[in-house]
Amino acid sequence: MITCIDNMITIQVQEPKNIPELRVMMFRLTSRNPAKTPHTFLNHWSITHTASGAIMSTEAIKSWDVVPQLANVRVMLVGEQKAENSVSTMAVSYRPVSDADELSLEALEPTGFDFTGASAISLGHEVIATDAETIRIRASTYAEVNVDIVIANFRLGLNGGPTLFNLITRLNNGAQMDEALNFRSGFRLPGRVAVTGKQISSEYKLMPELYPVPSLWEVRMGEFAVVELPFTVTINSAVGNLMRLRAPPYDLQAQDFNIIQSGTAETVTSEVTSTSSGEMVVRLGTQLFRGVLYEASVRALTPRVPNPTDAMWSIEILDGSQLPLNTNDGLTEGFRLVERAELTVRATRSPPMAAIDVNLVVDPKSSQPDELILVAPLGFNFTPNCLVTSSFNRVTSCQLHGNVAGRASARLTVARLTSVLEQVVIKVTTPAQNPPSTSWFINARDMASDLQLAWGEDPSGVLIRQMLGAHVLYPGIPQIPGQMAFSFITNEKIESGGAIRVGYPTDIEVLCNGLYLSQVAITGEVTCMNFIQEGYFELRLDRPLPPGQQAFTVTSTCPAAVNDNVFYIIILTPTGQVSDAAMSIPGLRIQHGLPISAMPLIWGMAEPNRNTFVSTGIELLAELPLKDPPIMSEIIIEMPPDFSHQVQKTAQLETLTEPLPRREGGWLDVTDPRRLRLLMDEEAIQKLAIGSYRFQWPIMVPAVMPKYNIWELTVCSPAIRNESCTGSDDPRALVSFPLAGFGMGESHPSSIAFTQTGDASPVRANWSVLALLAAVAWRHVREA
Q1: Which pLDDT does position 758 carry in this prediction?
Q2: How many CB atoms lie within 10 A of CB 151?
Q3: CA-wise closest residue to 386 among 415, 408, 416, 418
Q4: In this structure, are residues 283 and 274 in contact, taking their beta carbons and an 8 Å threshold?
Q5: Beta-strand (E) ranges in 371-420?
Q6: Burial class (CB in 10 A: 0-12, 13-18, 19+), 260
Q7: How far apart, in whole angstroms, are the C-alpha atoms of residue 760 and residue 754?
Q8: CA distance linking residue 675 with residue 712, whole number of Å
Q9: What b-and-e string marks burial along 184-202, b requiring 16 or more CB atoms within 10 Å of the CB?
Q10: Phi, psi dihedral angles at 149 (to 5 degrees)
Q11: What DSSP character marks residue 221?
Q12: Cα dihedral 587/589/593/598 (nearest 10)
């Protein structure tokens, strides 16, 4: 039986037979060493053999020396930088058993610790010596008194993982006192998240086809952007570990966050669990392996922090331990952001194809640039020396700068801007029409550093204002000449010596000299120069062209097909500058299978506010196609503004030749005072005989002739429903004939063939005379 009390053990032998003397007896026991070696007088083991209470024998032997063990040892990583191979700070604390003068600390695992150049920053401690992974620190310690030592400026081991240390205290003479060998309960060294490159992309840069100019420039403060962070780790992570991103004052967004493995583009499964105050926590559904390159992509709202070091990015992999599994120590710098400048671009006039003055207002905010690059929309351009005026000479020059994303740009040299730039006028040339995007951009730069400081956009800018009322009207029947009418409304007066330039498709034959030109609203002597190869003609004016409605006609003959069926009208000053213009005026379609022409307009004496008569009609010059001819369902006569017909009943519309096939049940609509609708028999009209079909009706002449003094005869196709054809702009219009009107006090020479009653209702003249008049009129048009 064995009995243990404190430091004494009693073994009672209960064998059935006595143990013979000189028999060697051996036994093993487990004991706990004292904290340190006892005094020499006490440091021995003794054994006593008793029998029936009498001492039979006794012996004592010297015990071993006890190596004192440091108690309450803690090795903590307390520096800001905690990733492997970083320069950091650790705190070592322990309770010694023995008095000592120094501590020796040796880092065994992981390899790579380096205490060279380290310092002790705790009070009363100093570094005695270092030898790579070992450091000796002078630290006077007393038994049972806790010691706290802080070691700074040493380099952590490589790769990361569990740490292993040896701690030994010694006296000044080198005698070892206490120790803690193979200490494994210290900190776990975090691995490193190595960000191998970073990139921030504005939402404009991600869609360069939609934002060609902004996609070239830096990310601005206060805008959403996408941050891409390629990284590797030195310690494998497990499924369920967390990734924590921190970048205040960036506002991280959970939307569209993802991690991919570079090279394979394989997605790392992840789930955003929280976002708050510039921090995002993501649960990893896939393991991350050391040495493998991954790429995290996160959407963020950028802060108003231009300096990259004022918004550092931290990436940590967490597994629930006190220290991260992997970290970048928050040492990834943020991004250089630029200011959001404000730009206003305005113009008092902006006709197409003109040189105009543009007013600029630029607010650089806090950027203070000394160079501005102004980028115009597509089609706009700058004159070589584009500066017109600048208040207080704040802009010293304006020069062409080259193209930016295919757009013209100008370089404005300025004194360092610390406030809003105003009252700056530059010269710009306009395109033919508004481009798809009307945005103007300003790039505020610093010339010395060649860096962008800010940029801004004016999305409305300068809108091209096409000349109002620009219109062209012509029959569009192949090989049959007819009048081609142009109308427009100008806003500015053009002095004498100006010109009207009209562009037309080169497939169309245009004649504009002499009788081929009717000036209509244009006064004075007009000379026409026709540049057939270039596809335009010019009417050169010897009198001023007043603002307002203008109109004139020339003679044209269309081919069977027209390429680039577009017209333009440009008003030129006497110096050749564009005053106003209308570009891309659509031409009319070519009408096949309808060989008709309009009969010349004949009228009686035109006196203000008096009745007279007008006659016109159509002439079928060739037989209509036998198969599916265009059906002439309605003929619309539209009079110029302020004119009105005086037809109250069908008898007042006189037929001067063979009548056209009339629709039964009502063939004439006179409800609109400016428009007559003649309704045809749609079956009979398809078999119309070659010949002339003229009719006349009474009208009221206005007090003043309108500027658009052009009569329109339109032939319309059948209605799908029961709607009426409204004239030349109606989708049912097959062909329209413009007919130049007459002036006040004029009468047509052929009007002598007619007599007028008191109510201006014409009386039918001799048929042979009318036929002769029609033939003469047609010959006049053809010869013209």
Answers
A1: 34
A2: 26
A3: 408
A4: no
A5: 371-375, 381-390, 395-404, 407-414
A6: middle
A7: 11
A8: 10
A9: eebbbbbbbbbbeebebeb
A10: -125, 135
A11: T
A12: -40
Cβ contact 479:556 at 8 Å: no
> Which residues have CB under 8 Å from 506's CB, separation 6+?
532, 533, 535
**Cβ proximity of 90 and 76 under 8 Å:** yes
| Strand arrangement of the beta sheet that strand 526-531 belongs to | 526-531, 536-541, 499-503, 566-572, 578-586
For each successive 10 residues of the chain (784 residues), what is the average pLDDT?
A: 86 83 83 81 87 86 87 96 97 96 97 96 96 96 96 97 97 95 97 95 96 97 97 97 97 96 93 96 96 97 94 97 97 96 96 96 96 97 95 94 96 95 96 95 97 97 96 97 97 95 97 96 96 97 96 97 96 96 96 96 96 97 93 97 96 94 94 96 95 96 96 95 91 97 93 50 38 40 40
pLDDT, position 777: 41
What dotted CATH number matches 192-327?
2.60.40
Strands 161-162, 164-170: parallel, antiparallel or unpaired by DSSP? unpaired
Element (H, E) at 738: strand 733-740
| Unique residue bearing structure tokens 């010395």 | 448
> What distance in Å separates the CA atoms of residue 669 and residue 675, rounded to the nearest whole number?
8
Query: Which residue is listed with tokens 């004949």?
Result: 602
Give the whole-angstrom CA distance, residue 662 versus residue 370.
79
The full DSSP string for 269-301 is: PEEEEEEETTEEEEEESS---TT--EEEEEEEE
The domain ranges of the chain are 71-189, 192-327, 339-458, 468-586, 596-780
Q: Which amino acid is at 608?
A: P
- Three-state DSSP at 2 gives strand
Write the single-letter amino acid at 634.
Answer: E
Domains 71-189 and 596-780 share a fold: yes
Q: 725-733 contacts: CB < 8 A, separation 24 or more?
A: 725/633, 725/634, 725/636, 725/677, 726/636, 726/675, 727/636, 727/638, 727/675, 728/473, 728/636, 728/638, 730/636, 732/633, 732/634
pLDDT at 774: 39
Check residue 21 and give its pLDDT: 81
CATH topology of domain 468-586: Immunoglobulin-like (2.60.40)
Q: Does residue 249 have a cis bond before it (omega within 30 degrees)?
A: yes
Gap between the Cα atoms of 169 and 136, Å rounded: 9
Which residues fall within 8 angstroms of residue 327, CB to CB, at 6 or more apart? Answer: 82, 83, 190, 191, 192, 193, 314, 315, 316, 317
CB 49 within 8 A of CB 57: yes
CATH number corresponding to 596-780: 2.60.40.740
Q: pLDDT value at position 753?
A: 61
Beta bridge partners of residue 585, listed in sequence order: 567
* CATH entry 3.20.20.140 includes domain 339-458: no
- Residue written as token pair 């231009």: 306
Secondary structure (DSSP) of 428-470 = EE--SS--S---EEEEEEETTTTEEEEEEEESS-----PPEEE
Of 434, 479, 439, 478, the closest CA to residue 455 belongs to 439
Residue 585 three-state SS: strand
**CATH, domain 71-189, list 3.20.20, 2.60.40, 2.40.320, 2.40.160:** 2.60.40
Residue 444 backbone phi and psi in degrees, to 5: -90, 125
DSSP 618-676: EEE-SPPPSSSPPP--EEEEEPPTT-EE---SGGGSEE-SSPPPBPTT--EE--STTEE
CB burial class (10 A; 0-12, 13-18, 19+) of residue 395? Answer: buried
- What pLDDT score does 783 carry? 41
Q: How far is CA 715 from CA 77, 679, 725, in A?
A: 95, 10, 9
**Measuring CA to CA, which residue among 104, 121, 113 is closest to residue 177?**
104
Q: Is 56 left (phi over 0), alpha (psi -120 to 50) or beta?
A: alpha
d(CA 622, CA 627): 15
